[in-house]
């Protein structure tokens, strides 16, 4: 059965693998051991306004990029689709092509590793659910583990429990009274 590990991500990057990009998250666990997460399932991508999909569809079909519905909306409340690509370079080329044609894209300028972290609300601390193996340059390696969204991990399992600060009111609110 997979275990839960709590840690902090120190560095994140991607490497162009043989078939697809791989994300690497490097950090330290609460017990002091170093770790690396290798994530091979995530694909780079960007958002596109649903209303502009028809103008982009020929390019997407030729390039082999895929799109899917998403819950994302623009600031003016227009629905977006998520476009995912097989490589970071292919994603950058699509964004550049659409920009040159006046088609707006969103989050295409965000680093691939940062997209992964942002989509999970991770700002540093992380919960990893998986079965690690021993590493050579780090103590533990996790291959494609489950990484819950921030707030859904090991120390966040009781969403109904309030902390002391919430019970007594925030210090900012108290200081304004």
Task: Give a verbal description of the structure.
The protein is an alpha+beta fold. It folds into two domains: 3-41 and 117-164, OB fold (Dihydrolipoamide Acetyltransferase, E2P) (Beta Barrel); 45-110, Alpha-Beta Plaits (2-Layer Sandwich). It contains five helices and ten strands, in the order ββββαββαβαβββαα. The strands form two sheets. It has a six-stranded mixed beta sheet. It has a four-stranded antiparallel beta sheet with strand order 5-6-4-7, with helices on one face. It is elongated, with a radius of gyration of 20 Å.
Key descriptive features of the protein:
5 helices, 10 strands, 177 residues, OB fold (Dihydrolipoamide Acetyltransferase, E2P), 6-stranded mixed β-sheet, elongated, 2 domains, Alpha-Beta Plaits, alpha+beta, 4-stranded antiparallel β-sheet, disordered C terminus
Task: Provide a concise account of the structure shown.
By secondary structure, this protein is an alpha+beta fold. It has helices spanning 53-63, 88-100, 112-119, 164-168, 171-176, and strands at residues 3-16, 21-29, 34-39, 45-49, 66-73, 79-84, 105-106, 125-130, 133-134, 140-143.
């Amino acid at each position: 059965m997979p275990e839960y590990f709590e840690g902090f991500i120190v560095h994140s990057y991607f490497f162009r693998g043989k078939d697809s990009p791989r994300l690497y998250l490097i950090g330290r666990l609460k017990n002091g051991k170093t770790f690396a997460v290798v994530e091979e399932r995530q694909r780079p991508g960007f958002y596109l306004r649903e209303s502009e999909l028809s103008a982009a569809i020929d390019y997407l079909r030729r390039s082999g990029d895929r799109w899917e519905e998403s819950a994302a909306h623009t600031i003016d409340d227009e629905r977006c689709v998520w476009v995912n690509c097989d490589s970071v370079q292919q994603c950058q080329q699509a964004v550049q092509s659409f920009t040159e044609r006046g088609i707006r894209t969103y989050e295409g300028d965000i680093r691939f590793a940062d997209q992964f972290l942002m989509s999970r609300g991770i700002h540093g601390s992380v919960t990893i659910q998986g079965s690690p193996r021993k590493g050579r340059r780090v103590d533990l390696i996790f291959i494609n583990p489950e990484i819950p969204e921030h707030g859904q991990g090991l120390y966040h399992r009781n969403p109904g429990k309030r902390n002391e600060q919430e019970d007594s009111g925030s210090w900012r609110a108290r200081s304004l009274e």
